[in-house]
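Troubleshooting log. The previous structure file for this entry was overwritten by mistake, so regenerating from the original sequence record. Sequence copied from the archived sheet and checked twice against the printout by T.R.
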Amino acid sequence: MKRVMTIAGSDSGGGAGIQADLKTFAALGTYGTSAITALTAQNTRGVLGVSAMSPEFVALQIDAIAVDIGADAVKTGMLANRGIIEAVAAKIIEHGLRPLVVDPVMLAKSGDPLLEPQARDALMERLLPIATVVTPNLPEAEVLCGFPIRDLDDMRRAARAIHARGPRVIVVKGGHLQGSDSTDLFFDGERFEELSGPRVETRNTHGTGCTFASAVAARLARGDSAWDAVRAAKRYVTDILVASAGLSIGSGHGPMNHLALLTRG
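Regenerated output below.
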C-alpha cells in the first residue's frame, strides 16, 4: 500500500484539513499519515480559534513518520506561520520527501485567515521552489502572482508567474469564477490544459481545496503522472460533491462525504 503524508491543520468539524486529507487518502486506496501544524476550533460556520504547534514539534512529527513509515507522496495544507513553513521545508529537503503537493491555504471557506500575512513570503520562497504540484484557488493565486484574476486569460498569466517561482506544475482552480462550469487550469511550463466540470449546486463545499490536493497526492503516490493525477482528482471531487449534495451536517458550509463512492448501494 502506498503511503501519503499530510502536513496540515486539524479541523475540529471534520470537513477540511487533516481530517479531509486522511479520508481522501483512504478513499483512494492509500495509507495516510499526518503531521499536525495547528489545531482549529472550527465548524461549518467559521473558525472560532487557532492554536499553532511549535515549529520544533511539527518537525518532530515529520521525523517520526519519515524514519519509520516513510512516504510515497506528501501534501501540505494549513501551515499557519513562517516558523512552521521554514521547519516543514527543511524537513522535506532533509528526508527527500517527494513528490510534494502544496495547497497554499490562506483562508478558510468562511473567510477566516489561516496563514499569517508575514508568512506568505516564506511560502513563496521556501516551499514553492521544491513543490511538484501547487494548487491555489483564485484568491490564493492572486496573492502568489500579485495581480487580479478575472478570467481564463488572467489564470494563464497567473500560472506562468507562479511557475516561475519554481514548482513543476501549477493548477489554478477556477471555482470562484462565474459560469455553469468550473474550469481549472493545468500548466507544467510547456502546455496548458483546461479541466472543466459541471458546477455542482450545493452548500456542502467545505474542504474541497484540501480534498483536491490530497487526491492529487494520493494519485501521485500510486504512480500517476502529474496530469493524470490532477484529472483523477478533479473527477473524484466532482463525484463526491454530487454524491454529497443531500448531506445535512451543520448549518453553514457543510462537509462532503469523502467515502460516498465506496458506500453506495
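The chain has a mean pLDDT of 94. Archived copy saved in two places this time.
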